[in-house]
Structures are given as C-alpha cells and as structure tokens.
Design brief:
By secondary structure, this protein is of the alpha/beta class. It has 10 helices and 17 strands. The chain is elongated, with a radius of gyration of 25 Å. The termini are far apart. Bound molecules: S-adenosylmethionine (SAM). S-adenosylmethionine is lined by residues 141-143, 175-176, 180, 201-203, 206-207, 222-225, 228, 251-253, 270-271.
C-alpha cells in the first residue's frame, strides 16, 4: 500500500501536513501509522489526492506494509504516543466527555496545536465519535460552554442516554454534563410517589425527567435559559414517564411570586457557583420538614458544610439531618459537593 513519508526533527514541523491529511480523510483507518525515530509513514487510502497537500511540506509517497490497527485496550494517550511521540502525548487530557457521537476534550493552550491529531486518535478508539470539540470556558449565567470544532462535521443536537432515559442535548446552547448521571439517578431514588418537587436550576431537566420516570410525582423544572426549556420539552416526548414534568422559563429569583403560596416537598438547587444566593427563595418555597439538595463549590467537605450552615443560620433555618457528598472535581483542590438538608425548619419553630 501507499504511505506518505514525512521526515522531521520536531513533529511540529510536519503538523500542518498531518492536519491536512486528517481533514481530507486521507489516512487509512485500517492500518497503524509507523513512527520510526524522526520519520513517519502514514498509510493513505487510494482515493487520496496527493495534489491537495503538495506545497505544504516536502514529502514522498512510498510503498509500505503497515500492521493492521487494533486499538483494543488502548488508552488515548498511549495511541497518540505510539503514532506521534511523547511531545504530542503529554498534551492528551486525562479525561474527556462523550455525549452521543460528540467528544468534548479539554486542552491547555500549549496542547491546542495538537488538537486535530489528538481528536483523530480519539475517533480511532471511540468509533461512534463523529465530531470532536475542544472545550472552552463556561460563560454567562446560562453556564453554556464555548466549543471549538477540531474534527468532523458540526453536530450540536444529539440524543444522549442516561440510565435508559433519553435527553435531547445541544451542547452549544445549554449546560450539560454527562458526569452528573449518577447524581441525577441518586436524587431520583429519594423521591416517593405523590411528592411535588421543584428543580430551581434545571438545565434540560435531567433531574425532573429521571424523577418522573421512576415516580408518580410532579416536578417543576425551572431554568432561565429558554433553550434549556426547549430541549427539556422535546425530551418529554421521547420518554415514558410515570409522573409529570412542568418546565418554566424564568429567573429563580422570581419563584416565590410565580408560585404564590405553593410549597414543595423537595427542592433541588444545582447552581454550584451561587446556589447559596437563592437559598432565601428556597426556604420560602419548601414545606416544613421538606428537603433541599444544594450544590456548592468548596475546598473540603468541612468548608462546604460551614458555608451552608452559616447561610441557613443567617436566614433563620435549620435542617434536622444534613448529609454531604462529593459530586465532581471542579478545579485543582476545588470540588462540587451536594448537601442534602433533610427536615427543614424555621429556627423559631424548631
Ligand atoms: C449547573 S446548570 C444545571 C444543570 C442541571 N441541573 C443538570 O443536571 O444538567 C445551572 C443551570 O442554571 C440555570 N440558571 C442560572 N441562573 C439561573 C437563575 N437565576 N434562574 C434560573 N435558572 C438559572 C442555567 O441556565 C443552567 O442551565
């Protein structure tokens, strides 16, 4: 078969031609790329038009005999190292997310130039991945992530499955984190038939739809982002539910006025950066002896509990039982915790 031979002293010198071969779908996915010191032999498919890459860099088309590619058991970093060497492999992130056919990878600035090469290897291991985006910052109160397409066609709307439940997700328009699936399921396991639940920052409604799939309960799912409500409503149509989910597009700050006297058995507050700022509203809306699940960011369990109890005390409320649980890592030495405040009471009635 034919290989493109690239000779270099640093891999960076030939990145543009490798990126172009990836873009043109020229590299054969059936065979390994051979790295031999400072020489790469890249197997190319017959239809590859070498004219497209002429002028980019000096290269030769040579006869080659690469092994068939077998990625079973390979981790992404190992495959990248084997094909492109350590200088690229050190930039491979230790974890990434896959939402249906889309992979979302975090890369540091120095790793960005290798994004296409890393993305290509990722699609060799995860054959269902058709597009790869590099994760940017999460912006605005809607918590939507900036994304840069580095491999494949743009796909935004997909159907993602969590514990058998289907969600329409548009990663460019709404907050979504597939790592919360265990948490969605955990909270839904506490809910009993007949409960009325409020999810104050629902995103696309994962908590609500999990709950209503298991219980004959009513969940009010509130989000300020109209796209979150749009995709939540779409997901209702593709799941069989025992209970009901009612989506409301509004600012949680207004909920005491929206619900005018209605109260809830359980309130979910998943806005880790500033859920505490809305706790006064939650206390107005929760039943005596009801439950609040509040997510916050802290350096330790102790700090999280201190932040929560300081705020509840200041607002004149207490919980008869408090649980805390690590949910996700947020940044080095910063974690997202969920505080389960069971048996909410105003202090003067405790
Ligand atoms: C961390 S995400 C929630 C994720 C969701 N619970 C899940 O499990 O996928 C926070 C959500 O809160 C919404 N949000 C932010 N500020 C809000 C506010 N003041 N009122 C209502 N929703 C708000 C954002 O649009 C975002 O969808």
């Amino acid at each position: 078969m034919k290989c493109i031979e690239l000779v270099f002293s640093r891999i960076d010198e030939v990145l543009d031609i490798i990126d172009k071969l990836i873009e043109l779908n020229c590299i054969s996915r059936r065979y390994v790329i051979i790295r031999d010191g400072n020489r790469l032999l890249i197997p190319v498919i017959e239809e590859c038009d070498a004219d497209e890459i002429k002028g980019l860099r000096e290269f030769r088309v040579v006869e080659c005999n690469p092994k068939e590619l077998n990625v079973r058991g390979y981790r992404l970093r190992e495959l990248v190292r084997e094909f492109f060497g350590d200088e690229v492999a050190i930039h491979v992130p230790s974890s990434f997310d896959i939402v249906d056919g889309i992979a979302l990878i975090p890369l540091h600035d120095e790793g960005l130039k290798y994004a296409k090469v890393i993305a290509y290897c990722l699609t060799l291991i995860h054959r269902n991945v058709k597009s790869v985006y590099v994760k940017g910052a999460v912006r605005g109160f809607e918590r939507v992530r900036e994304l840069k397409l580095v491999y494949g066609e743009p796909i935004y709307e997909v159907i993602h499955k969590e514990h058998g439940i289907k969600f329409y997700v548009n990663v460019g328009k709404v907050y979504f984190n597939p790592r919360l699936s265990t948490e969605h399921s955990r909270i839904s396991s506490f809910v009993r038939d007949g409960e009325v639940v409020l999810d104050m920052f629902s995103g696309i409604g994962c908590f609500g739809i999990h709950i209503a799939s298991k219980n004959n309960s009513i969940v009010y799912s509130v989000d300020i982002n109209p796209y979150a409500v749009y995709y939540g409503l779409k997901s209702l149509k593709i799941n069989r539910l025992k209970g009901k989910v009612i989506f409301i597009n509004c600012d949680a700050r207004l909920l005491d006025k929206v619900f005018k006297g209605r109260i809830f058995d359980r309130i979910i507050m998943n806005l880790p950066h500033n859920a505490l700022d809305y706790l006064d509203i939650a206390f107005k809306l929760v039943k005596i002896n009801g439950t609040i699940h509040l997510y916050l960011i802290a350096h330790s369990e102790e700090e999280a509990l201190n932040m929560f109890t300081a705020k509840t005390n200041a607002l004149g409320f207490s919980c008869s039982d408090i649980g805390i649980r690590w949910v996700l890592d947020h940044a080095p030495h910063e974690y997202i915790y969920c505080i389960d405040c069971v048996g909410v009471r105003a202090m003067n009635t405790a």
